[in-house]
Amino acid sequence: MAKRGYNLNNSFLRNIGEGRDVLFWEDLWVGDQCLKDKFPRLYHLEEVKDAKVSDRVSWINEERLFTWHWSRIPLGRNTDDIVALQECVAGQFQRETDINKLLPQSLGIFNWRVTRRRLPVRIELDKRGIDLHTVRCPLCDEDVESIDHAIVLCKYALEV
């Protein structure tokens, strides 16, 4: 799908949980770029390059707190970058109760299955050794039925 200009990952909320398994600067969890690439001056000032999201963002009494460990006090453009970084990161967080109110559970499950390549499309079933007559899309018969094809690329999917 990336070849055709679609980035399916940007269409879904990423569930990073409490952030204990996600690297704040190095992992792709905000938008389409790692934070170290988006904010290189701040990354240069960071003392703990392998900090987890949970090391940098926490909640106390329903208030979001940012915790930084800079090698020196950020000055000048770096202060503007900190504000931009906090705004960028804050958009990724919703409390679990907020997400439950916004999304039906079935959509959350669907999102989980899509991002982990766990939808039972023909190409995935074939990879797991399930014998099928064909792996082509049963609706349009124009391409292999992959997750990308079934959700975005199939002409019938585009009509939905």
Give a written overview of the molecule:
This protein has 160 residues and is mainly alpha-helical. The chain has two domains: 17-91, no CATH class; 103-159, no CATH class. It is 40% helix and 5% strand. The protein has helices at 35-38, 40-45, 53-56, 77-90, 96-102, 105-115, 122-127, 147-153, 155-159; strands at 57-60, 63-66. It has a two-stranded antiparallel sheet.
By DSSP (H or I, 4+ residues per run), the number of helices equals 9
First-to-last CA distance = 18 Å
The major sheet is characterized as:
2 strands, antiparallel
Work out the strand percent: 5-15%
Mean pLDDT: 80
Q: Tell me, what's the shape?
A: elongated
- Within the largest sheet, what's the order of strands? 1-2
The total count of strands amounts to 2
Helices and strands, with pairings:
Blueprint: H1 35-38, H2 40-45, H3 53-56, E1 57-60, E2 63-66, H4 77-90, H5 96-102, H6 105-115, H7 122-127, H8 147-153, H9 155-159
Antiparallel strand pairs: 1-2
Structure in a nutshell:
The chain has 160 residues and is mostly helical. The protein has helices at residues 35-38, 40-45, 53-56, 77-90, 96-102, 105-115, 122-127, 147-153, 155-159, and strands spanning 57-60, 63-66. The chain has 2 domains: 17-91, no CATH class; 103-159, no CATH class.
